[in-house]
Amino acid sequence: MLHSVFGSNRPLVQVFLIIPTALGVGMAAWITTPEVHPLAGPPIAWLQNALLDYPAVGFVIGGLLYLFSAYLANNVYNSAGFGGRESYFPALVYVVLSLSIPDWTYLHPVLWANFFILLALRRLLMMYRVRSALAMLFDASVFMGLAIICYPPTLVVLPLVWLALMRFRTFDLREFLVPFTGLIFVGIYVFAAYFLAGQEPDFRHFFDLDSFDTSAWLLRGGAFFYPFVLFTAFSTLGGVLVFILRMRTSTLHMKSTKTLFLQMTFLLVSAFVYSVFLDVGSPGAVMLLYIPVSAFTGVFFSRRRMQTWMLLIFYLWIVAALGFAISAHIV
Asked: Could you count the other beta carbons within 10 Å of the beta carbon of residue 281?
């Protein structure tokens, strides 16, 4: 039932995600104490501080970011034809993953970074076969700049803009330079805000590295933690394999699009690894992986001929995800 609903080509099925998101956000607001994330960029840190006295607003914004990002991830997936046909598994996967850890619901900077990275990717994928890509490049670079000031470790993902240029366009000096103007545009506003607030930017904690602390990852989820991770990893790696195998029979445009997505996946994994080894620590950086995981899992579950064992994996993943989310909310 659930598999056929989200495997359909009806966009309205995404509406069903509103109810579990509302329930998850409500539970998170009930059991979680809002706090300012140490790696949050200036606008998010200020917003987190401003809403500490109004935590419900912050949790609602977090829930909306879940839903909008899930919609964008699915929009990119369907528009690029990653699954071979339209489906809405990426939106389902993104929301389920987002609701699994309640501590990350309150305006976590990675939520904002994901949202802006998806907006940037959406614009970059529109550059193919247009006469002038200047506006798209400017928009994408502004979105990437916003992602960086929300969560500075996403600076690692910035080369995506020029990688897209290499994939979709012949060399043009103006197009090569335009992203710099978008980044400068965002930077001016950031430093102006610091100046008006009478503060100085401090980037020292982004250079202090430490060993990877696994304890922060195993605090919640109980017995469902390992099944949830196992089924998620299995379906993701299976989706990666199908994704790559289909590239052999894809058109040139599709191959370029898929190659760019694989390159973005590598950059997001790199940003995640960098984040978890920082001295401050950022377990929530795993949310950077929600974008590729939702797409690859969508590819795996949206195959035209789903064998019985694949459907079994899907429903076992749903059960493990629900068990993990419930355990994480009550422990």
From this structure: 17
3-state helix, strand, coil in the chain (%, to 5): 75, 0, 25
Quote the CA–CA distance of 150 and 117 in Å, as a whole number. 11
CA distance 200 to 182: 23
**Cβ pair 75, 122 in contact under 8 A:** yes
Write the pLDDT tens digit of every residue in 36-83. 777 777 788 888 888 888 888 888 998 899 999 999 999 999 988 888
Q: Can you tell me the distance from the alpha carbon of 77 to that of 83, in angstroms, rounded to the nearest whole number?
A: 7
pTM: 0.90
Which among 25, 19, 44 is positioned nearest to 101, based on CA atoms? Answer: 25
Number of helical H runs and strand E runs in the chain: 13, 0
Exposure pattern of 22-40 as b/e (b: 16+ CB <10 Å)?
eebbebbbeebebeebebb
Tokens representing 165 are 């240029």
Model pLDDT for residues 82-140, shown as the tens digit of each residue: 887 888 889 989 998 888 877 788 888 999 999 999 999 999 998 877 788 888 999 99
pLDDT band per the 50, 70, 90 thresholds, residue 239: very high
Alpha carbon distance 147, 106 (integer Å): 17
Which has the closest alpha carbon to 62: 119, 112, 23?
112
What sign has the CA pseudo-torsion 136, 137, 143, 147?
Answer: positive
